[in-house]
Specification:
Layout (H helix, E strand, L loop, with lengths): L1 H17 L18 H17 L6 E2 L1 H17 L7 H11 L4 E8 L4 H9 L2 H7 L5 E8 L5 E9 L1
Parallel strand pairs: 1-3
Antiparallel strand pairs: 2-4, 3-4
Helix pairs in contact: 2-5, 3-4
Length: about 160
């Protein structure tokens, strides 16, 4: 029994050392970048026009989703790369403030126009599926890093 317990502890230790870790917002020095509001508004309009062309509902703007989209965009800028890190935390935070059934997100980087970001998402099966999903609300955060690269986070949820 003692030998088996020692073996289990060793396996857990190896698993712990080899586990994949992701940075959390608290682990990085996050600098809040300014929003590029005209691109945010253009993407919302393009996405809603696309949805209505498919006889789907327009997505309503959510200040709660916008808050968490901005936090995530700042996180990606601080990290210097795209990610869905901490998505469950964002979804839980939104759910704690709104009565939501489902949350999803799309992220992008380096597009310089709203049409470019939309087309990038549209040409990706998973991103397109999210844009055309059964959602009621959305918010889009677009920010530029110090080097001039644009980062995008769009959060979706259904009430």
């Amino acid at each position: 029994m003692k030998m088996r317990l020692l073996y289990v502890v060793q396996i857990l230790f190896v698993l712990f050392l080899s586990s994949c870790t992701t940075d959390t917002v608290e682990d990085l020095p996050v600098v809040e970048a300014d929003n590029v509001v005209h691109l945010e508004n253009e993407i919302l309009e393009i996405v809603n026009n696309h949805r209505t062309s498919l006889d789907m509902n327009k997505l309503l703007f959510s200040t709660v989703a916008y808050k968490y989209a901005n936090i995530h965009t700042d996180y990606m800028i601080s990290k210097g790369s795209l990610s869905h890190d901490n998505f469950s935390s964002r979804a839980s935070s939104i759910a704690s403030e709104e009565a939501v059934e489902m949350v999803a997100e799309n992220v992008a980087k380096d597009y310089v126009t709203a049409v470019g970001a939309f087309e990038g998402w549209y040409n990706s099966v998973n991103h397109k599926k999210t844009m055309e999903g059964d959602f009621t609300h959305t918010a889009i955060s677009v920010k530029k890093d110090q080097a001039g690269n644009f980062y995008f986070t769009q959060l979706f949820y259904r009430k």
